[in-house]
Every structure is written in C-alpha cells, then in structure tokens.
Amino acid sequence: MLGVLQGFVLILGIIGIGYVAARAGVVKGDQRLVLNRVAFYVATPALLFGVLKDSDPAVMLSPVILVTSLAAVIVAGVYVVVSRLRFPRDLASTTLGATASGYVNSNNLGLPVAIYILGDALYVAPLLLVQLVIFAPIVLAILESTRGNQRGAIVALGRAASNPIILASVAGLLFALLRIPVPEFLMAPVTMIGSAAIPMVLLSFGISLHGQRALAPGSDRGAVLFATSLKVLAMPLVAWLLSLAMGLGAHETFVATTIAALPTAQNVYNYAATYRRAETLVRDTVFLTTFASLPVIAAVAQLLGGG
C-alpha cells in the first residue's frame, strides 16, 4: 500500500499547493482557467500522444478491460436514470455527472496501484486507451452539442473530432498501430510539454477550492454524493459481479475490481472547467472519491488479493 499512499500524497500535495497559491492571492478568480485551457488544448494532447504511440492497442481486448469498461457504462447509465428522476439537470451537467461516476483515474493513481498492488503497470494501460479512444470522444461530442442549439449533431461530432485531445489520441494510436518511429529530438519537446498536463490540472483544481467547501448548501449535494457512491462502491461491486459472471480467474477478478475502485479522474474536472458546466458537481466528486477510494482499494486488496 506504500505506493498507493505515495500516489495519494503526490496528488493531494499539488492540489494543496494550488489552494495555497489562491489563498495567497497569486492566482485570483477565473485566472485558474488559463491553466485548464493550456492543459486541455496543449499539454494533455502532448501527454496522450506520448502515451499512446508506445502502447499496444491489442490489450484493449482483454477480459479485464471488458469488465471495467462495462462496469463504467453501467454505473454511468444508473446515474443518468436516477438523476433524471431525483435531480434533473441539463444535458451537459448530466453527462459530466455520469462521467464522474465511471471515468477512473487510470494515470495518477492507476499507475501506483497497478505497480504496487496488482504487480504490473500494464494493467492500467488498456483502460487508459479505452477511456481516451472511446469514452472521451463521446463525452466531448455531447458537450460540444450543448454549446449552441443551432448546431446539429453532425456539426457537434465534427467539432469534437477536431478537438486536440481526440486528434492527439487518434494520432498516437495510429503511430502505435503502424509502428511509426518518432525521432527523439522531435519527441523531447512533446514529452516535456506533456509532463506539465497533470500538474496544471491539479493546481487549477486546488485553486478552485479556495473560498469553497465540498458539499456546500446549493452545490448539487445529492448528485455529488450519488456520483461518489457509484464510483467508489457500486462500480467495484459491478466489476466483481461481472467478473464472476464471465468466469474470470481469481487474479483477473481482483485486478478488475481494484481498477474499478479507483477515484474519478481529474480529466473530468478539466472538461467541466473548460466547458464551464457542472464544475462544482465534478470538483466535489473528484475531491470526495480521491479520499474515499483509499479504504475501498485497501479492502479489495485484503479480500480478493490475499493481502
């Protein structure tokens, strides 16, 4: 569990630095959105291209990834149905709430969990691919479609397809499929810019916490608590049940359940902040799941990992 704790400390440390920067007046108000926009349009595409160009697309077909992907879709669907009945919101907010319920932090926390609990970093790479190549384009297309009633679905999909995150992901996947080498002198600046993506998102997240508190009255408290429960409790349970139903082995069941217990990815907050929709809902869900997932992951490791 030491590696997982290190991952949590790293994330919370950078978030804390962002909060202190806001409290000290270094960054004020919506100035934090500059960080989000640079991360969204520049640094994150660079990071994703670097990750995907060296990946093996074939691993997307593994049974573990099928289980975790299905679990994400199921809990997202549950969120949509329940939210329409209990706390109806516009399409963008509902989409982001559903995404926060099933889109896992497969990078910041996924890597230490995979290395120190599952024993192999390759376990999170397939899910990262699925989220980037399949889930993210769908989410971004929906968000684009809500930017103006005059745009049709085809135009919205076209705008989403021209999004730099999607373009970088597709380019990286093509480079991996075709095994196209990239000279080091060309990749070096891309790698350096990409390494700034996660810190910028975490800093912006920390800045957004200044003057706010999680679950404040009027802050979509019901939606936040429901999305958090789906992410840290329901999704691992669904993944475990699906693993049993599909006849996965003990270790594969352990891997799928552990991955499903990871908290909501900060990328979802970056989408919310960039499109200026459901920011508080997503921010609070990311914040709560980051803390709540640790004991859940420890329990899964104890019960299913033989630890």
Automatic annotation (TrEMBL):
It is found in: Membrane. Signal peptide: none annotated. The keyword Membrane applies. One of its GO terms (cellular component) is membrane. It comes from the Bacteria. It holds the Pfam family Mem_trans. One of its GO terms (biological process) is transmembrane transport. It is a multi-pass membrane protein. Keywords: Cell membrane, Membrane, Transmembrane, Transmembrane helix, Transport. The chain crosses the membrane at residues 6-22, 34-52, 58-82, 94-117, 123-143, 164-182, 188-210, 222-242, 254-273, 285-304. Its main location: membrane. The keyword GTP-binding does not apply. This is AEC family transporter. It comes from Leucobacter edaphi.
